[in-house]
Structure formats: C-alpha cells, structure tokens
Amino acid sequence: MSTEALRIVWIYPDLLSTYGDRGNMLILARRAADRGIPAETYEVRSDQRMPNGADIYLIGGGEDGPQALAAQRLLADGGLHQAVSQGAAVLSICAGYQLLGHSFFAKGAKCAGLGLLDISSDRGETRAVGELRGEVDPRLGLPALTGFENHGGRTHLGAHAAPLARVTAGIGNDGQTEGAWAGKILGTYSHGPALARNPAIADLLLRWATGADRLAPLDDTWADRLRSERLAAASPA
Amino acid sequence: MPLIAKVATSVSKTAAALSRAAGRGDGSVIGGWIGLKIDPDLLTHLAAGRAVALVSGTNGKTTTTRLTAAAVGVLGRVATNSFGANMPTGHTSALAKEGHTPFAVLEVDEHYLAQVIDQTRPKVVALLNLSRDQLDRAKEVAMMAELWKKALADHPEIRVVANSDDPMVVWAASGSQQITWFSAGQRWLDDSFVCPQSGHPIERQQGDWWCTGCPLRRPRPQWVVEDEGVIDPRGDWHLVKLQLPGRVNIGNAATALAVAAEFGVRPIEALPRLSRVASIAGRYAQVDRDGRNIRLLLAKNPASWLEAFDMADQAPTLLSINARDPDGLDTSWLYDVDFSPLRDRPVLITGDRAYDLAVRLQVNQVQFKHVQTFDEALRSVPPGRLEVIANYTAFQDIRAELDRVN
C-alpha cells in the first residue's frame, strides 16, 4: 500500500446528488479513517476539471436533465476515462450507473453515455420504487445486497459486464439481475447511500484502491442490525 | 351559496364534530372529504366572499400559517387549517367549520397549490421555500418550481409574497406581476446549486446570489430579517419577540407580517399577537413529566433538521425516525443531514428506523443510546430539559404518548 493518502472523488455533487449520495463518500472516508488509512475527499463540481489521479470515484443519482448534462461534461472532460484506464475504482449509483453505459434515456431522448460499462439503459413501463435485495456475484465474495431503489430505467448488460447481483426482491436492472460490474467499476440501482447498508462493498472499494488483500475488521454491530432488518423487510411475501 | 353547497357545508361540519366526539381525530380531514363528495365545488363556494391568503413551501408552512392567521386576526375573524391538514379536504373542513369569516389563511401542500389557487381565488399567495422532501413519493424540486410558475402565471391578479433567498422560489414567482419579496435567510442550499432557468451554476456571496449564465438573480427584498427583528418596507426595524425557538421562526414571523401587510395590518398591531403563539399542533410544545421538561421539535427533511439543530438547546436529545407513508419510505435523506452538531450532548435514538439513524450517527462520530420506548428515553436522562426531534409519524407517536399535546 502506498504511503500517500487515499484520494476519493465525488463526481458532480451539484448535478448528481438527490438521495443522500454524499453518504457514500462519508462512509468510505470513515471506514478508511477507522483503520488508520489516511484518506482525502474531493467534491468536484460540474464546472471544474475532473482530476484523473484519484483512487476511488463516486457518481450518484439525479434527475434526467442533470444526468444528461453530467454525461456530456464527463465525455468532454475525459478525466474519468483516464482515471479508469489507470486502474481507479468507481462506484456508480442509479443515474450515475446508467450514464457509465453506452446509452440511456433522459427526458424521452436517447443520450450517449461514457461507455465505461458494457450496459445500455432504457425506460421501463413502471417505476421501480421500494426495497431491493439480491445475491451478489460469488466472484466478488460479498454478502447479500440490500438497498432502496427508485428509478424508471431498465438496464441491459452486454458481454463485457457481469450482473452485480441476482435479484431476490425488487426490480434492479430488469427484475432478474441488479447492477453491473467489470474490472474495478461497480454500478447499482440501490440508490443514495448504498454503502450504509452494504459496508462490505465499501471495503471492497477500499481493498481495490489500496491493493490490500484484507482490511482490519471494524465493529459493524449497527450496520449488521440494519442489514438484517432491511433484508427481512424485503422478503418476498 | 347554492343549496347543495349549504347542505354539503352542514354535513361536513356535522361529520367533523362527530369524528372529534368519537375521538377519531381532530375532524380536519373527514368533514371536508364528505362535503366534497356531496358538492365537488364546495371549496370554491366556501371561499367566495372571503379574502384568502395561501401559504405554501417545503418547510415552515404550518407555523407561518398560524402566525399569519394571528396577524390577520387584527382585522376580524379568520378561518384557518391550524392542524396541518393542508390538502383541499382540510381547507374545506376549515372553512365549513368557521362559518362566514371575512378572512381565511390556509396552509397548502406544495403539490396542491395550483388546484387550491383555482378554487379559492386568493388575494395573496406566500411562497416560502422549495427543497428535497420525501423523494420516493414527492416531486423533484425543479418540477415543483415549474408547477408553481405555471399556476401563478395563470393568475396575474394575485399578490405573491415570496422568499428572495431561494432561487427556486424566485424563479417560480418570476412571471408574476405583483410580488413582495422577503428575506428570511436560507441555510439549506443543496437544492439550488444549479439555476432552474438556464442550468448554469448559481454563485453566492454574503447572502446574495446570482446565476452565472442568465439574468436570474436575487431580487431586493422589502422585508428583511435582521438580528432579532424585521425591517419593514419603510425601513423601520421591529423587535420580534416569540415563544417559538430559532432564527427560522423569526423568518416565519417576517413572512407572516409581510402577508398581513397585504391585508392592511401594520407590524406594530400584529407583533403582540405573534408573541402569544406558543406551540402549533404540538410543535415546540413543552411538557413537564417526571421532572423532565420535554420540548417537541418536528423535522421532516434535510432542511428542517438543520433548523432543528439550530433551535435545540445543548441538552439531552432524543431523535426518532420512522419511514411510514407520510414520512416517505426511503431514509436516504439522513445522509443529507450533518449530525455533527449533536456530538457534544447525550443523544438517544428510537423509532421504526432507529438502525438507519444509528449507522448514520456513527459515520458522524456521534455517540448515542438506542431506546425502545419513550418512557425508556425519559428514564435514561437526568431531570431537566429533554429535546425531542422527530420526523412526521414519529412526532405524532410521541405527541400521542404525551396525550396529544397542542
């Protein structure tokens, strides 16, 4: 692990922060600090250049207009593409997840995405709102996913992206799979502060970013209680 | 009033009274619901002949409505929905119950503003603020501002009293012909970083703000909160003495004075009445029990939690969070609230979603104790002040524990 501080970038909080998206940055920084890993957080607004040298990039949910604008600006900027090619980890949520793909729909129009994940999104007939639960891809070695979803999109995965989870309650991508991952890029419809209910995903990002095989355990008593409660609440009737 | 409306009014009043007598509630919804079933135009008939003020926004509606009703009361009897039933059923109940009053001051849910404007033909509409609130069932902020803008554009005769500090409100009001601007300060900024007109960033400096890409900017307010008082359009400063805590309530009082002024009430007449308002449907109420002085603060969304922390004394504090239908089912918003102001005081947590709160507080390094019941909370703190901050249904639960304190 390098002795330099871990650098965590929150992408465009002015455009993509609707559902407590700040939480993911706070949780990553807290879990790093609790282990004595120095971490610095940066909030990069849409009128600023995207730094390409950070370790973890977070991109959150948002409304249609800001989502389309964010995609345009990130494409024009190129910083996130460079960071990914240099091995940075990315956590993308909801609208942020969609815009990492090849295309998505916003305000009725098809928009070009960043093409960093082999996915494309369109509109479902119904809006998916409610508790979401899934069994995470075993290759990631993580416990069940729990979250709250609130989106109108449906996402289709290409050959170069794997589902993050198999849905056991809720909709996710299409009622069968939820989210996607490839390399060190994760995407999920579990919106807002997804890491609050899934601290193991936070630790996966921290391991990717530090290169550490394992991290010191933390007291997750409260997070475990929250997870048990929400997983039970999402049980199929 | 047509016969059908008279019948509907009478039935509505009876139903509300029966509901109250049966202990089913305060009757502020059921009466209006039945009345509107009999005569769908009942609200229009009941509003006719009264000078009406509507108060809408994400936060501060109930308090501002109460203060405005108190101020307009200088002139005569005022019908008002003082218990927070802020949809057309509640408006209908309130007007039916009070009989013929010259004035009405009605709190309106932001989603219903257009409809209630059409039905009540108000003299004044007060626009307080717009911020994120219960996003799993409510509209996004920019969409709400657009709805307001359209609703007002159809009614150039209405006098708008609007908050110059909130870019969303300024944009919503900008098509109106007659606007009085007030400045009550705005602590919550996260929903107005981007201009609703042009999509460009909004810059802020020392209370002023402007869009970097279009002409939208903060209008010069005629009513301004300064220190513990309010400057009126003539430049006179009035001390505002309230029993309600917090700077936000000075702002609400300033708004009430601005609205009442449109009816011809002078601040000097209204202020003594404002100072007599002690609590509003349980909000800010203080109850003594088992040697503890319990104060109830309602906080429903990120903006109102910021204000609640500003109001709360440095005393033991109970936080209660639910996520039932009226609260919104999603607790993500907890991460839009900075809980670090609570680090230096004993904190207790409870409610259906206490675990969400527990994880959130840990992220902010706030120590806390989880309690199962309100009684357990009381036993856990020493005699003296206990501040209670709760979201909507959690607040109602605790209010019920305290015998529906008003």
TrEMBL record, chain A:
It comes from the Bacteria. The keyword tRNA processing does not apply. Residues 7-198 form the CobB/CobQ-like glutamine amidotransferase domain. The keyword Hydrolase applies. The active site is at residues 94, 191. InterPro entries: Class_I_gatase-like (IPR029062), CobQ_GATase1 (IPR033949), GATase_3 (IPR011698), Lipid_II_synth_GatD (IPR043702). Substrate binds at residue 127. Pathway: Cell wall biogenesis; peptidoglycan biosynthesis. SUPFAM superfamilies: Class I glutamine amidotransferase-like (SSF52317). Gene3D superfamilies: 3.40.50.880. PROSITE patterns: GATASE_COBBQ. Its EC number is 6.3.5.13, 3.5.1.2. Keywords: Cell shape, Cell wall biogenesis/degradation, Glutamine amidotransferase, Hydrolase, Ligase, Peptidoglycan synthesis. Signal peptide: none annotated. It catalyses: L-glutamine + H2O = L-glutamate + NH4(+); beta-D-GlcNAc-(1->4)-Mur2Ac(oyl-L-Ala-gamma-D-Glu-L-Lys-D-Ala-D-Ala)-di-trans,octa-cis-undecaprenyl diphosphate + L-glutamine + ATP + H2O = beta-D-GlcNAc-(1->4)-Mur2Ac(oyl-L-Ala-D-isoglutaminyl-L-Lys-D-Ala-D-Ala)-di-trans,octa-cis-undecaprenyl diphosphate + L-glutamate + ADP + phosphate + H(+). The lipid II isoglutaminyl synthase complex catalyzes the formation of alpha-D-isoglutamine in the cell wall lipid II stem peptide. The GatD subunit catalyzes the hydrolysis of glutamine to glutamate and ammonia. The resulting ammonia molecule is channeled to the active site of MurT. Forms a heterodimer with MurT. Belongs to the CobB/CobQ family. GatD subfamily. This is Lipid II isoglutaminyl synthase (glutamine-hydrolyzing) subunit GatD. The gene is gatD.
From TrEMBL, chain B:
GO terms for molecular function: ligase activity. Residues 55-260 form the Mur ligase central domain. Gene3D superfamilies: Mur-like, catalytic domain. InterPro entries: Lipid_II_synth_MurT, Mur-like_cat_sf, Mur_ligase_cen, MurT_C. Keywords: ATP-binding, Cell shape, Cell wall biogenesis/degradation, Ligase, Metal-binding, Nucleotide-binding, Peptidoglycan synthesis. Residues 298-394 form the Lipid II isoglutaminyl synthase (glutamine-hydrolyzing) subunit MurT C-terminal domain. Coiled coil: none annotated. Pathway: Cell wall biogenesis; peptidoglycan biosynthesis. Its EC number is 6.3.5.13. It catalyses: beta-D-GlcNAc-(1->4)-Mur2Ac(oyl-L-Ala-gamma-D-Glu-L-Lys-D-Ala-D-Ala)-di-trans,octa-cis-undecaprenyl diphosphate + L-glutamine + ATP + H2O = beta-D-GlcNAc-(1->4)-Mur2Ac(oyl-L-Ala-D-isoglutaminyl-L-Lys-D-Ala-D-Ala)-di-trans,octa-cis-undecaprenyl diphosphate + L-glutamate + ADP + phosphate + H(+); beta-D-GlcNAc-(1->4)-Mur2Ac(oyl-L-Ala-gamma-D-Glu-L-Lys-D-Ala-D-Ala)-di-trans,octa-cis-undecaprenyl diphosphate + ATP = beta-D-GlcNAc-(1->4)-Mur2Ac(oyl-L-Ala-gamma-D-O-P-Glu-L-Lys-D-Ala-D-Ala)-di-trans,octa-cis-undecaprenyl diphosphate + ADP; beta-D-GlcNAc-(1->4)-Mur2Ac(oyl-L-Ala-gamma-D-O-P-Glu-L-Lys-D-Ala-D-Ala)-di-trans,octa-cis-undecaprenyl diphosphate + NH4(+) = beta-D-GlcNAc-(1->4)-Mur2Ac(oyl-L-Ala-D-isoglutaminyl-L-Lys-D-Ala-D-Ala)-di-trans,octa-cis-undecaprenyl diphosphate + phosphate + H(+). The keyword Protein biosynthesis does not apply. The keyword ATP-binding applies. It holds the Pfam family MurT_C. The active site is at residue 330. The lipid II isoglutaminyl synthase complex catalyzes the formation of alpha-D-isoglutamine in the cell wall lipid II stem peptide. The MurT subunit catalyzes the ATP-dependent amidation of D-glutamate residue of lipid II, converting it to an isoglutamine residue. Belongs to the MurCDEF family. MurT subfamily. Forms a heterodimer with GatD. This is Lipid II isoglutaminyl synthase (glutamine-hydrolyzing) subunit MurT. It comes from Actinoplanes sichuanensis. The gene is murT.
